[in-house]
Amino acid sequence: GRGEQILAEALGANRKEAIIVTKCGVPWSEEKKTWVRNSSYEEITTSTEASLRALNTDYIDLLLIHWPDPDRPFEIPMRAFADLMAAGKVRYVGVSNFSREQIMECLKYGPLAAHQVGYNLFDRRMGPEMLPFCEEKGIGVMAYGSLAHGLLTGALTRETKFGEKDWRARGNLFGLPLMAPGNFEKNLEVVEQLKGVARDAGRSVVQLAVAWVLRSSAITVALTGARKPEEIEENALAVDWRLSKAELDQIEKIMKGAAGTESAR
User: For the residues of 74-111, what is the DSSP string, one character each?
Assistant: First the structure.
């Protein structure tokens, strides 16, 4: 909840000017000393109450289930969602990392406004199936990892070393060995070529990566991380860049040299 508290402090009296999105369904287990999937009615409702307190607000704009819970029918979290919306504590609900079949099951019990899923130039696994499906169902897609978890920032080099606590040190990004030895070096070369396409348009490779994600009408949000205000400003400039067919063709030609884009699972 610390992140929610920081956000509340930052927003102050401007809360109504922001759309707040938070998640539920993956609490910390003291017994197992790890995060666990739990979409029980009690967990969804109590964690949402905790988020409301941490955020210092009486409503959440969009609440997502972080990961599907294999131990409970989806009717249970959807009932919790319905009650939270009826009470005015949540405006819209959605899911994250769900399959098409799991979303279909959820829709039997109520509406979903959003689906958050990994999607970027290197990781397109969800694109062919998920994007048209969500668009058909009126579900907005929030693409996370738009910058391939740092790979598409253009800031990484062959000398980059990830710390022991940095999950990227394993070289595996959500099932894709994009940063594994050999693949990492090849993908850095791909990013260098993408920088050239961006430069020709007077843009940065970050803006190219975000613009590529947003080119799909199914995607409503391209999620990016930022450590400095100027990084947010740079990312935002990608919104008005409509990649031309020639640019898209050039990007696809470059991406043929990418390595590790097949699932390692």
Answer: THHHHHHHHHHHHTTSEEEEEEES--HHHHHHHHTTS-
